[in-house]
Amino acid sequence: MPKGKIVKALSGFYYVDYEGGQIQCRGRGVFRQRKITPLVGDHVEFEYKDKREGYILSIDERKNQLTRPPIANVDQAIIVTSVKQPDLSLHLLDKFLVLVESKGIQPLLFFTKMDLLTEQEAITVKGKLAYYQRIGYTIEFLSTRDKEMIEQLSIHLNNRVSVFAGQSGVGKTSILNRIVPGLQLETDDISESLGRGKHTTRHVELIPVENGLVADTPGFSALDFKEIQLDELPNCFPEFQALQDECKFRGCMHIKEPKCAVKQALENGNILEDRYQNYLQYVEEIKNRKPRY
């Protein structure tokens, strides 16, 4: 049986990339019975009569999957954050990072609208974000008019399946339109009264860019930790994970435990105070979430 990758899902059809073209497929009834939904990014075995009539027979094991957007086997998440309109929020940024880290996906951080800042504001923002570079994250600063730099960003996409993530109105779709000539995805202006944009993306699709694939996806409709267990949370902070073997107690949550290397690093100024406070808020959020049945 032929094998391929699902590159688009729309109205109950799955479009499988195969031999330079796409086969329109439906899922077999057995998937519904087992409550399995094929996802964009899945590697599948399928059969077909012609390009418009195929059926997915089996789905390979996934290395990861996201709920919002519904996509599987992602290598990299490009987290787009604006520094103005809407203003930079490290609390939101850290939430995105936790969600991405929990899935074992490599984050890449894009900060947009740098040209809307004064020189002093730009210095302040870059100073705050230097910490994220120090703990290992790759950062790119973008101007709303900086076409050349946006074109250069395509080098990060080679040989990877990438997802763009970030709150509405930060420029995800605008970047995609500029790195994929002729794409012309729909964009909406920022709502001045709400300070945020509207969701404009209608389906999930993997788009060839350079030698990689990029998913055009809506911004996360909910930033919650429903799929993250409390004991997994410290591992979603790389600077905590790097110190965990130095803590006295295995499974240290870095809150009230004695001889905690993370709290010591915090006291020494080696861990960003705001980020640690965000961590404490996420702990409470997970503790207080309603159980699922």
Q: TL;DR of this structure?
A:
This is Small ribosomal subunit biogenesis GTPase RsgA. This protein has 293 residues and is an alpha/beta fold. It contains eight helices and 13 strands.
Commentary on this structure:
The two termini are 38 Å apart. This protein has 293 residues and is of the alpha/beta class. 33% of the residues are buried. It is built from eight helices and 13 strands. A hairpin with a 2-residue loop joins strand 12 (204-209) and strand 13 (212-216). It has helices at residues 29-33, 90-102, 119-134, 147-152, 172-179, 238-241, 261-267, 273-288; strands at residues 3-10, 13-18, 21-27, 43-50, 53-59, 65-66, 71-72, 76-82, 106-112, 138-141, 161-165, 204-209, 212-216. The chain folds into three domains: 3-61, OB fold (Dihydrolipoamide Acetyltransferase, E2P) (Beta Barrel); 66-216, P-loop containing nucleotide triphosphate hydrolases (Rossmann fold, 3-Layer(aba) Sandwich); 230-288, Probable gtpase engc, domain 3 (Ribonucleotide Reductase Protein R1, domain 1). The chain has a five-stranded mixed beta barrel with strand order 1-2-3-5-4. InterPro entries: G_CP_dom, NA-bd_OB-fold, P-loop_NTPase, Ribosome_biogen_GTPase_RsgA, RsgA_GTPase_dom, RsgA_N. Pfam families: RsgA_GTPase (PF03193), RsgA_N (PF16745). Residues 63-223 form the CP-type G domain. It is found in: Cytoplasm. GO terms for molecular function: GTP binding; GTPase activity; metal ion binding; rRNA binding.
